[in-house]
Write a structure and sequence with these properties.
This protein has about 200 residues and is an alpha+beta fold. It contains 4 helices and 8 strands, in the order H-E-E-H-E-E-E-E-E-H-E-H. Helix content is about 20%, strand content about 25%.
């Protein structure tokens, strides 16, 4: 098993590893020193980068592992983001998703400087292993469901721009600072009114 450096680089869109389908973790590997070191490194990178989620391939670890959660630092920077406890998901599997969908502004540590108005299922049930190799399961909705779906996409080599159905629904991140002065109903009425971290039921 590979052991990550203490401070790996974040991979940016265009890196081949971000476009690959990644392999399941062997459960007996979870408690090994190298694996635990890599988990610690993944979480540290997420917190340093102010992300609400991060997937292992984003730091060069090509395996089905992700970490989600809102740290104190992230909460202070994005106060509208709901509380999500920091947790690891190893070999996460989506058991079911709702027919109902919702929209939000997504960003990504591997796609810097861009936000996209993306539609995904509003609720889901997910199962996997935690950092101690125990089976965990959760029902997630709203923003927490969104983060999980975004990160699982990373494990399948999909980045959020591929989920955007119209080019006008992708904007520079810096534009969000003046969202209130965008033209009326641009790019859609709900997209204009919904700040990052909040969810809209409608396009």
């Amino acid at each position: 098993m590979m052991r990550l450096s203490d401070n790996p680089d974040l991979l940016i869109m265009g890196d081949p590893l971000l476009f690959q389908q990644h392999h399941q973790v062997s459960v007996e590997d979870i408690l090994t020193d190298d694996f635990q070191h890599n988990l610690h490194t993944l979480r540290k990178k997420q917190i340093e980068a102010n992300g609400v989620g991060i997937a292992a391939p984003q730091i060069g670890w090509g395996i089905r592992v992700l970490c989600t959660g809102v740290s104190k630092q992230t909460k202070s920077r994005y106060p509208s983001v709901p509380d999500i406890p920091l947790s690891f998901w190893i070999n996460p599997q989506i058991i079911e998703v709702s027919q109902e969908t919702c929209w939000t502004w997504e960003g990504c540590l591997s796609v810097p400087g861009i936000r996209g108005w993306v539609n995904r299922p509003a609720n889901l049930r997910v199962r996997g292993f935690d950092d101690q190799g125990k089976i965990i399961e959760a029902t997630l909705d709203g923003f927490a469901a969104r983060v999980m779906l975004h990160e699982i996409d990373h494990l399948d080599g999909i980045l959020f721009p591929e989920r955007i159905d119209e080019t006008k629904l992708m904007v520079p991140s810096i534009s969000m600072e003046s969202q209130g002065s965008w033209p009326e109903n641009w790019p859609t009425s709900n997209a204009r009114m919904t700040p990052p971290g909040m969810i809209s039921a409608e396009r």
